[in-house]
Amino acid sequence: MSCDFLALAQPGVQKLSPYVPGKPVDELARELGLDPAGIIKLASNENPLGPSPRVLEAVRRELSELTRYPDGNGFELKQKLAQRCGVRPEQVTLGNGSNDVLDLVARAYLAPGLNAVFSEHAFAVYPIATQAVGAQGKVVPARDYGHDLEAMLAAIDAQTRVVFIANPNNPTGTWFGPQALADFLARVPEQVLVVLDEAYIEYASGDELPNGLDYLARYPNLLVSRTFSKAYGLAALRVGYGLSSPQVADVLNRVRQPFNVNSLALAAACAALDDSDYLAESRRINDAGMRQLEEGFRALGLKWIPSKGNFIAVDFGRDAAPINQALLAAGVIVRPVAGYGMPTFLRVSIGTEAENARFLEVLGQVLARG
Predict the structure, then answer these.
(1) CA-based diameter of the chain, in Å?
(2) What is the pLDDT of residue 320?
């Protein structure tokens, strides 16, 4: 090929590396000749409960309409979300997963010469979306693996248009409380859009974490992004949403792709919102699994970062790559996070009781071999 199409790409795109997701079960089975039925995947923060029966029934009803385009405005889902979240439908932006909403923000508000502020060890989509549109990413050093909100405020300058903050944060599981968020929002310049990524908020309980929705009416420069992929168990269908002022939502809808959320996802999300029992069971399994893994790590003499998500980052105090490879060889998939600046850690999604036990058993064997 005589033409270098990489050189023709936008400068920000040229420097990007493709996002690397958690390794699929079938891929590991092919690579190592393992039986897929014997592999457990604790790498992608997926819900181990399986889909809600209500969701499955809603998807079945929708199958006969696959020749039709979905409702491009997502009317029914927007109505349900507006009622559930205490906002107006025109404040809702639907996305192909919450990643899509983050990308819409970057496309709408960032450009060469402008910048976005985000934390070290924060979700990989923030720098990817920022760099892809040619904007500068200002990475603020973390404090104890979490967001240093004071330092993030100090990093805002005249060219800052977006600040991405995650609560809880992925992959560290760290979080900040209501007062910290209130103080932060009160001091962010009004022309800077604050994107509060609450992908894991449903796993929180009590007043440990602020509810971003409580601040929307007071701060027109706030957007809260959420997803159905985690606690609601719809990762394969890719449906998320952003809640913001009507003006911000209008801007995002100007760059949103038509029909970005498919019919099955729309139907499934509507059904998921009605299944409170499923959500409660998801939380129960997650709480029990978190305790199980913490107790296992303690018994193995390991340290970890306390987490409010459906995952936990465990520290081995040395390069975790060989440990990860040994786990893979035994049919256990977890997530290396060296790319997040955490080479001694592995991130482990909360699984079923049996999956957690299998992981801890194999991990103990790997560590015993040195």
Answers:
(1) 61
(2) 97
